[in-house]
From TrEMBL:
Source organism of the structure: Noviherbaspirillum saxi
Pfam families from the UniProt entry: OpgC_C (PF10129)
InterPro entries: UCP028704_OpgC
Keywords, sorted A to Z: Membrane, Transmembrane, Transmembrane helix
Protein's name according to its UniProt entry: OpgC domain-containing protein
Transmembrane segments: 20-38, 50-73, 94-114, 134-161, 173-190, 219-237, 249-267, 287-306, 318-346, 358-376
Amino acid sequence: MRPAGMPINKEHEGRMNRRWELDTLRGLMLVLMFVTHLPTRFSSMLGQPFGYVSAAEGFVMLSAFMAGMIYTAKGQRDGLPAMRNAFLARALKVYACHAALLLLLFTVIAALGISRDEPALKNLIGFYLEQPMAGLMGGLLLIYNPPLLDILPLYIMLMLVSPLVLEHGLKRGWRGIFALSIVLWASAQFKISENLYNAFVALTDLQVPYRETGSFETFAWQFLWILGLWMGSATATGAMKNRRPFPKALILACIAIAVPLLLWRYIAGQVPTEGESLINHWFDKWHLGPLRLLNFFALLVLVMHFGEWLKQRIPQFAFLQTLGAASLPVFCVHLVVVLLALSIFGESTPERPVWTDVLLMLSGLGSLYLAAIITLRFDAEANPRPGAAASR
């Protein structure tokens, strides 16, 4: 790793300001999450389309990569205090979005769902309906995280620790960071967070049950964030450019892992086996089970290996690039659309006409695209410089 005081290569900095392939991948992850969350008959068939890996893993990894790349460049250019301030500003911006979504859910969305007596919406905010004050305060403190609104709190917490991680990585290397990260991931497989939380509740009499704190196991998911942060930082300093090609044996091994798991996913469904089993635990999404990570790493290696070849042969999808370039506003609008759909239409049922689901899907995607267009136009007017929207 290049020492912290060494100037960053201007060629690298210019290239990373606008990388269409990253925007395309982020846009794809956003579309997949939207399709999965929107209550239509298309959700189950399009969820986890590449094997036992969801869009959430890709979105978190890409977000960390972009953060590592952008904020490392800022730290090298403007100094580490400026990098820390930029991280804090970003975390506060995401928190503001999360707080606004919570207030919308607890007021307009809740009133709409209750007036229509939609069980899906009432189940989603069941704890808040039982204990409004504890739900509101717990939500604003990032403790109570209703389904669908639990990824932004994870993102906020990881953003807050990222300056310390990046600074340590730039000055002293990443080995110690990865060693600690792996230990935390391994401990998450044995419910360490739940045990610590229960101990905290016993001391404080906190009213929010553990099951209401969100589905994502923070100690597990931090591993993907650390990996992405390191890769982004290495890209910013130019170290990633000099990496050796993956051995042919590794590529073949990854194909041998990814292809059978892809077939298994479409034969068995989104859950590998029926009922409770050790296999299902190893593929668990919320704890990032070891076999799920293996599937993810196999796909990551293949994407990195064939990335340049694909860039030269696939078209640039303007729709996905636009969504990816405004990922935070698009993600927030996707949640608003999904929550409105749940409060008005409820869960998807076979009795619902196909045209209704198609209309929901098209109008929702149109809303995401409109949000991205407005955001990028506003950003271009407010910050008329190259690559201004790269960190959105």
